[in-house]
Each structure stands twice: as structure tokens, then as C-alpha cells.
Amino acid sequence: MNIRRSRKLIPMYSILRFFAKRQSRLKHSVQHNLFHSIINSCALLTLIFILHTGFMVHYEDLSLGDAIWLTLTTATTVGYGDISASTTEGRTATILLIYLGGIFILAKVVGDYFDYRLAVRDKKTKGHWSWDMKHHIVILNSPSHSGGRYLQRLIKQFRASENYKDTEVYLLTRQFPKSLPDFITQLGNVVHYSGNPSNPRDLEAVCVAQARDVIVLTKDENDESSDGRTFDILHRLKDLNVNATVLAECVEDSNRQRLEYPEMIVRAFDTPGSERIIENMFNSENDEYRRYDVNINNMSWCDVVTRLITRDVGIAVAYIDSHSNELVYNPPAHIKPDIQALITISKDSNMHSNDDVKALVS
Question: pTM of the entire structure?
């Protein structure tokens, strides 16, 4: 009995899916038809105005400027009365072209324009509008539990950073079919596209190839199968030749090697008390990581760290090796590395330039 019922549900699901796709196509068709209706009406209206202006010049013996003035004031029903048609031919042309044609078409153009604006606004609100963006942040997926609040907190962290405070954020998720919550839109420069991050067309719709950074959030932090969807999204990004910095979350720790493209953020440690340190590392409210492009040779790591601390520049936590271009963090104290860049952590208010640090370690 259960098998028979499940078989009956399959065609019903297909029917519902068919009508859902058809409704989406109809909405797109309505907007497309409105746009072309406006173009066609404007072309016809221009032709009517040209014909009427020509008749006024020919039958009413008006100058070109006066004929255009009479045509426009009549079509817009302003009717100043300073110039009017006096001949039978001129009045007949005005009745046929302007009264019966021009005024009606002009009203239709205005009505179609406002309908088109409303249709576009509805698409933007519901996430069916593709915005043209460059150097923006793309966030793929949203957590299934309290996803809106999670995104709010995540975007707030970007806004707290000097490098990202004005960067546009593009969300690709199906969690907000009607509109983004006000507490997200109030953060500024945040829009969304209602789609599937595994769909290449939806990825292209959010301009992922032109993005500055891409974040792939896990769909369900309690479901290990979410890593499979994340892995699929990463392959889609690779196929689209995305050059942005890509960060992805994973549920199962064993999948970290599998998801080495791109880097993974690991947020859990077993050491009690370290959670406060990790939380401080991932927000931009008090301390911030900074990079200084400086060349340092023949100086021990201990001396580099000491000079920075004594001058209140910050704490050196890592460096980029001049030969391998690799990041080396927490190196031994007495080695003398060839450094091309320093990574430090310091207070938000403690700003120093590359020249300051160069002078300090020279």
C-alpha cells in the first residue's frame, strides 16, 4: 500500500514542478514583453510626432520650432493655446494623429513604464535580479538554523574591517524567497539572488568570476553530507575559473584534506580556554592582523619580535619567506630568516605604515 501511494506522488510532484517552472517563465515573459512594449510604443509615438509636426509645417505654415511646440503641448494635454491648428487639414491631422493616437499611446508608455519599474523592483526584492558587480564578496549558502542572524553577524564583521567596510556583498541562497530581512539590508550594500550555489547559471548570475572573495558556508552544520554539496560547489567554482580568494566550511574534520581547494577555516580546538582567543582572532572589534611588506635579513626572529613589541607596533606572529614565498608561523626564536613580509597582530587604533616598520627593523 505504501509503495502504491509513493508511485502516485511522483507524477503529482512532476506536475507541481512543471507549473512552478511555467510560472517563473511567465513572470520573465511579462517583464520582457513590457520592455519591448515600451520600446515599440516609443517608436510609434515618435513617428506620430514627426508626422504631425510635418503636417503643421505644411498645412499651418508654422516654423519647425512652433510645429514641434504645438505637437508636444497637444499630446501632453497641456494646451497653452498660444498656437493652434486653424485649417481643416491641420485640425483633421491633429484629431487623427494626436487625439486618437498620440495621447493614447503616450498614456500607454507611461503606464507600461511604471509597470516595468514595479516588475523590476519586485524581482530585486525577491532575489530574481542579477546585479552587475565587480570586486565584491559572494556568500554561497546560508545555515539552515538561524541563517539570517548568522549572515548578519558575518557581514558585520566585514563592515568592522577597514578593507571591507564599503564592499558590496552578494548572497546566493534560497532562504529568503520574499525579501532579505531588514536587519541584513540595513548593513548597506547587501543584495541577494535566490538560487542554488551548485547551479553554474546561478553562480554566473552573482558574478562569481568577478568577485574579490567567495565564502562557501555549510548548509547544515550537523549534517556530514553538507560537505559533499560544498565539494560540488568548489568544483563548480574551479570550472568557472574563479580567481577570487575562496574560503569554505566543512562539517567533518576528515574532509579538510579533500577540501584543500580552497583554504579551510578551522574553528574548534580541544584546549580549554582557547575559545576566547579564537573568537578574538575571527572578529575585527579589538585586535586586527596586518601585513607589512618589508625585507629583513641577518636578524634573528627574536630580535624582530622584540623591536616591534618595544615600539608598540604589535606582535609578529608569522613571516613570508623570500625564497619559497611560503607563510611561516611561530618560527624558532633564534633563526635568521630572509623575510619579505611580516604578519602582525595589534590593536585597531595602533596603525603603522610600511615605512615605519622598515625604519624600525633596518
Answer: 0.55
